[in-house]
Amino acid sequence: MTASRTADGPAPHGSQTEPGSLRAARTWERARSIARSCAGQPLPAVPRTLADALGHALAEPLVALTDLPPFATAAMDGWAVSGPGPWRLGGAGVLAGREPGPLGPDSAVPLATGAPLPAGATAVLRHEHGAADTERGLLHDRSPAPVPEGQDIRPRGQECRSGEPLLPAGTTVTERVLGLAAAAGYDRLTVHRRPSVELLVLGDELLAQGVPRGGRVRDALGPLLPPWLRACGAELISHERVADDLAALGEAVRRSPADVVVTTGSTASGPVDFLHDTLRALDARLLVDSVAVRPGHPMLLAELPATADGRARRLVGLPGNPLAAVAGMVTLAEPLLRHLGGHCAPEPVQLTAGSALPGHPRDTRLLPVFTAGQKVTPLPFDGPAMLRGLALADGLAVVPPGGVPAGDTVDVVELPRR
Hints:
This protein is an alpha/beta fold. The chain has 8 helices and 29 strands.
């Protein structure tokens, strides 16, 4: 049973119809494209302190606010020297964070790594290459070759000049980006707002703790999905269990203030699969209703009625089987969330099949694989309800219908890493 409104009428070119259903199955590539494009423009730009910008996407290019380094500095501990030597030893040493006076001709002054270079210095003599004659006040060079001009000096602007673009808009703010931004003079960054997400885990058969018993199984997706959603740039505002009840599910979806509602289970046509009925009752618009991919084909994407303040809302329905739900994450949830958050779409990784990668006769297959160098090897335990292979995987190989022979290239979707 489907919702009353769909994005399209007849099945699009390249789609397939699931046996026993009237729903047109999107191709895997088309489903991902719809997930990206339905988001429209990324969410608005907001200012954030460096501490609060982690995980967001830059809403504008990161441009250097200063030269880096901002002044010539010493790259090693030793002496700043002027001329070829030997040199007259000068006064107190120069430490990082101190502004030195000028250095006269044929003179030397001790200095530490990172310290500003005195005006007039032509090179840095490393500590292990210098011999100080304190009685005569001279410094001699004991290095294998004469010190060349500019040795062990980081010149001003060596890394970048003020006004130089450093990173493009859409770059994800990682710990490394925060370090660069701070070095370049930033206290705040302009980033896109994170899409808010509410996760609704459906299924009366799920246990929150302990071993499976009494015909019930552990909830694997409750622990698995929240960190994965955050890795996609989402702000998880709620994580709830919802009973297999039409009224309860309808109320949970209707009242959700999230930009994106993510559900698990209830996407097929079983006796307690109420998601399609819920979407119909809410007058939601189905954009994707089944995808020609294994595992995970009964996944869906819908536009929900807007919030009271006019914000658009979407719903991603993931299948209930764990590996099938992961397929739904990489097919629909990740492209949608990354686009809403303003993140650049990652380029596909093309690797070589180290052995044959088995495929489905008609559909794309997402296969857990282990990566070694530039080659991928399929992992066992890859059924829709299994997680053992995924736990060992570096990525999911996108295997076209019929499979990939050993030695051929294959696209690989990389999995989040911590």
